[in-house]
Design goal:
- The complex is a heterodimer of chains A (178) and B (184).
- In chain A, 79% of the residues lie in helices and 0% in strands.
- Chain A is built from seven helices and no strands.
- In chain A, helix 1 packs across helix 4 and helix 6 packs antiparallel against helix 7.
- Chain A is flat.
- Chain B is mainly alpha-helical and 184 residues long.
- Classes of the chains: A mainly alpha (178), B mainly alpha (184).
- At the A-B interface, helix 1, helix 3, helix 4, helix 5 and helix 6 of A face helix 1, helix 2, helix 3, helix 4 and helix 5 of B.
């Protein structure tokens, strides 16, 4: 078991450090290592774990927690989570400290202003990709658009919105042609 | 924008774990925008969006980076810890519980319908944040708008990998802003 835990660390720590642009960018590599290289999970188990991590609340990268859990139980879940989250968490923490120390410095203003438009473009792009990938056809796409509009125009609690989305989808999916 | 008094570390942890536990379907940074900027006004929109830009450009999970960033801005080191623990630990426990119960649940087609509906509604959160961020960018001149459109086209239409887009466009954009700040 100890060697498996060690493998979890040596696999996920480096992946954590190269995951620029978000946790989803390393999923393909995680899949390759976990299924093809280590044979910890079958293809089906991996797909299920991926689906669960996407639908469950919290960061999608909890996929790694699930992999650790499947491989080595609770200890595996803890070790794997620590390996994927801790290194970059520490980096960002250091950045936040340095940032506070040099508040208002020229490089800081340039970084903040320069990265904002990239972030805006990427978020809009990933929303588009998500809408295209929706299962449930134009009914689901309609719900996504209506949800966006409600959030832009009202102070509605997102939990209410999710519930309404689910109810509308259940009520209409059989009635309307796909 | 007026900001409210600084929250306590416990309050921060509570809000982060609530987001961690209720954000079905993803879009966590949209939830954070909603809770921290729009509902509680603990942090203003500009500062939040700056943090978002950094959180995306840095290695790591964007939402965890953002939680640590926001936590630190509001409450220093304990705040950063509250952000990281709140956004990771409660949902990590939950996801294992869900995985354990998944075999029992997945048989019902209703489960899938609920998830499809929730997933669709959840896109609204990231879309809303994209629109708010975009609205702000349009007030900042032609170059940021061009960079934003390029990022959108590269990722959304051409499907170029995220790290590449962040590194190339991010570097160009930061260099241009640095040039602009230096001349001002």
């Amino acid at each position: 078991v100890r060697s498996i835990l060690l493998s979890l660390v040596t696999l996920f720590v480096p992946l954590s450090l190269v995951s620029v642009g978000g946790g989803q960018t390393v999923v393909a590599e995680i899949h390759r290592q976990v299924v093809s290289h280590y044979h910890w999970l079958t293809e089906k188990q991996f797909v299920d774990a991926f689906a669960i991590s996407r639908m469950a609340p919290g960061p999608g990268t909890l996929l790694v927690t699930l992999i650790g859990w499947q491989v080595a139980g609770i200890a595996g879940a803890i070790v794997a989570s620590f390996a994927i989250f801790a290194p970059t968490a520490l980096l960002v923490y250091c950045l936040a400290r340095i940032w506070a120390r040099y508040e208002g410095a020229r490089w800081q203003v340039a970084l903040a202003a320069g990265l904002q438009p990239v972030a805006a473009g990427m978020i809009l792009a990933s929303s588009l990709v998500l809408i295209e990938a929706l299962e449930g056809g134009w009914l689901a796409q309609g719900i996504a658009v209506a949800s966006t509009a409600s959030l832009m125009m009202t102070k509605i609690n997102p939990v209410v919105l999710m519930a309404v989305g689910a109810v509308v989808f259940i009520a209409l999916h059989g009635v309307l042609p796909a | 924008m007026l900001t409210e008094p600084t929250p306590t570390t416990i309050q921060l942890f509570n809000v982060f774990s609530r987001i961690g536990l209720t954000s079905f379907g993803g879009g966590l940074s949209g939830w954070m925008l909603r809770e921290f900027v729009q509902r509680r006004a603990w942090i203003d929109e500009e500062e939040f969006l700056s943090g978002l830009g950094l959180a995306q450009a840095f290695p790591g999970v964007n939402v965890v980076n953002l939680a640590i960033w926001v936590g630190y801005r509001l409450r220093g080191t304990p705040g950063a810890l509250a952000g990281a623990c709140g956004i990771i630990i409660p949902p990590a426990v939950l996801v294992v519980v869900i995985a354990a119960g998944f075999a029992a649940l997945s048989g019902y087609s209703l489960t899938h319908l609920v998830l499809d509906g929730v997933g669709a509604a959840a896109i609204g959160l990231s879309m809303q944040m994209g629109l708010i961020a975009a609205r702000r960018v349009t007030t900042k001149g032609a170059i940021p708008i061009v960079i934003m459109v390029l990022a959108f086209v590269a990722v959304g239409l051409l499907h170029i990998s995220l790290p590449l887009v962040v590194l190339v466009l991010g570097a160009i954009s930061v260099a241009l802003s640095y040039y602009k700040v230096s001349r001002a």
